[in-house]
Amino acid sequence: ATMDKTSAPANENGNVFEDLSGTSHATSDNPYDALIDACSNDPVLPSSIAMTAIQARYTRHRETRNDAQKKKFVDDRSSVIIDPVLYKLVHPEKHPGFTDDRNCLVFWARPPSDLRSLIAGIQQQLLTIAPSMALDEFCDSGLWLMPTECLHMTALEIDFSRTAEEIDEIVKTMSDKIREITDYPFAHRARLLKPMLSYDTAAIALSFVPAASESPPDGRHESADAYTYHHLRRDLYEVSKSTGVEIASRYVVPSAHLTIARFVTQADIAVSEDDETPDPPKVQKLLDQIEKINAELWDRYWPKDDQRIMAGAEWIVGQEKGLDCRKGTLWYGGGQTIRLGKGF
């Protein structure tokens, strides 16, 4: 089924993918146009101002969302939202024979090695405040951690809950453009920076915002940041749409994030094993750790006065690997690669 681009789509756990950046969405066939137009609708506007405005929209979205989710945890005393499919997958002894039958087709951006190392360190920090968390997906853990080899950012989602046969038909329709799409970042290099943990009652992610000329690496001119990650997403959508496929993407909000953990039980914030009511001190401990990590990220990894940015703190999409066109049951990092694009 196609999705109304003006609506706020939700995942199967009920979390809404809502644009909190303040952007009013236009009626363009390409849902990424609205934000770009809002930030650069003056033909004489310098590109430096436009890229700064786009970064500001991404910043507003993630900060507003974090504030709203913190209110849910603290003021509303919300429980975490358990992913029922993931819970069954990580507990095969309780659900023998269960399989995830939601087939998807996506174009993923794969993080470079320095960024994967940064994320692995953050995951270890999360483990220190949650005794039941573990990397072993078959233990009775409260938080499932995304294996580093499965980390990804969804640059474009074509469809997210079809049969395998339906996905194969979509792949056939798109076959002539898959090479172009997966190689697209090689000549269109969008830079992301300012890593920060974003979270809701279902998951924790590491998010970025599009660069706006801060401390460009050697060989990259400041003006290159005028082509932002949002422009890349717009272009990928346009090329994909030209094949005639219906794009049922849930991810059109101004967000650049990699999910690094998902809640699979109430264990780490509940009063006890017998009482799953959120325990305020335990909830606060989790939130304090997230805020501590974010303060460390800001101090060590955010650009300061044109100083060189530390390894892992910025990401030019396409580094090491081009886009990964992937199909199958890939909600949790699995699936099969159809084509991996050319990296740099």
Strand order, main sheet: write it out: 2-6-5-4-7
Are there runs of 5+ residues with pLDDT below 50, and where? 1-14, 134-140
Subunit organisation of the chains: single chain
- Overall pLDDT, averaged? 88
Counting DSSP E segments of at least 2 residues, the number of strands comes to 9
Structural write-up:
This protein has 344 residues and is of the alpha+beta class. The protein has 8 helices and 9 strands. It has helices at 33-40, 47-74, 84-90, 113-127, 164-174, 178-187, 229-241, 280-301; strands at residues 103-109, 143-145, 153-162, 191-199, 203-210, 256-263, 315-316, 324-328, 336-340. The protein has a 5-stranded antiparallel sheet with strand order 2-6-5-4-7, with helices on both faces. Strands 3-1-8-9 form a 4-stranded antiparallel sheet. Helix 1 (33-40) packs across helix 2 and helix 6 (178-187) runs antiparallel to helix 7 (229-241). The radius of gyration is 20 Å and the shape is globular. The chain starts with 32 loop residues before the first helix and ends with a strand.
Q: Can you describe this structure in just a few lines?
A:
The protein is an alpha+beta fold and 344 residues long. It has helices at 33-40, 47-74, 84-90, 113-127, 164-174, 178-187, 229-241, 280-301, and strands spanning 103-109, 143-145, 153-162, 191-199, 203-210, 256-263, 315-316, 324-328, 336-340.
SSE order and pairing:
Layout lengths: L32 H8 L6 H28 L9 H7 L12 E7 L3 H15 L15 E3 L7 E10 L1 H11 L3 H10 L3 E9 L3 E8 L18 H13 L14 E8 L16 H22 L13 E2 L7 E5 L7 E5 L4
Antiparallel strand pairs: 1-3, 1-8, 2-6, 4-5, 4-7, 5-6, 8-9
Helix pairs in contact: 1-2, 6-7
